[in-house]
Design brief:
Elements: E1 8-18, E2 21-27, E3 40-43, E4 46-53, E5 57-62, H1 64-69, E6 80-85, E7 104-113, E8 118-123, E9 137-140, E10 143-150, E11 159-164, H2 166-171, E12 182-186, H3 189-199, H4 206-216
Antiparallel strand pairs: 1-2, 1-6, 2-5, 3-4, 3-6, 4-5, 7-8, 7-12, 8-11, 9-10, 9-12, 10-11
Length: about 220
């Protein structure tokens, strides 16, 4: 479990094929300072497991499903990544609850620089749009952010906006984002649970109908 507060920017240093996935090596001096085999580290929002490590690097396996769902699909040596160690149970929840389970990817449409911050508009898949609300939380490339604007529900192409303060621009890869940059998206876990529960409330859902029948027979 993570909080979306990026601790350092690292970089991919090696990518090797591994079955239908890949094995990546990441330069991460701070992240490996107290890491051990099997620990979880968020790499631009993707929860990866340490399988090997050195003084300033670690290696992790990335399975095909993760490649299909995230920007790690075209990962290559030299790419900068946001890194965060799993949060300690006694630590502060500085951002929001982030699982490191990517829902899909979006694409930066526009960056509007301001005097003290930048507003970034990101195009998102239509099926994720209902899970994103104005002033709600979202993790973009592993960064916990507050949604500052959303598209109308009837727009053909859905989008969200976030406002990035100077610290976020300097400390994360989002400071380098420009139109066309793909990003990882993780919607709020509470929204995902609500959506799933509502799906079972419809009378057209066979599982919901079966459950209702079972309760009525008791």
């Amino acid at each position: 479990m993570f909080t979306g507060i990026v601790e350092e920017m690292g970089a991919i240093t090696a990518v090797e094929p591994s079955g239908d996935g890949v094995r990546v090596t990441v330069r991460a001096p701070l992240s490996v300072s107290d890491a051990g085999h099997g620990d979880s580290i968020s790499v631009s929002g993707v929860c990866l497991t340490v399988v090997d490590q050195g003084e300033d690097w670690f290696t992790a396996d990335v399975m095909k499903q993760t490649l299909d769902m995230s920007t790690l699909a075209d990962v290559a040596p030299g790419r900068p990544v946001n890194l965060e160690r799993a949060t300690a149970a006694h630590g502060r929840l500085g951002g929001h609850i982030v699982q490191g389970h990517i829902d899909g990817t979006g694409v930066v449409r526009e960056v509007r620089p301001g005097a003290q911050w930048s507003v970034v508009r990101i195009g998102i898949p239509n099926h994720l749009a209902p899970l994103v609300v104005d002033k709600g939380s979202i993790a973009i490339d592993g960064v916990s952010l507050t949604v500052s604007a959303v598209s109308d529900a009837h727009e053909a192409e859905q989008w969200l906006e976030v406002s990035l303060i100077p610290e976020t621009l300097a400390a994360t890869t989002l400071g380098r984002a420009e139109a066309g940059t793909p990003v990882n998206l993780e919607t709020d876990i509470l929204a995902r649970h609500v959506q799933r529960m509502l799906a079972f409330r419809t009378s057209e859902n066979p599982a919901a109908a079966a459950a209702s029948t079972e309760r009525g027979s008791r």
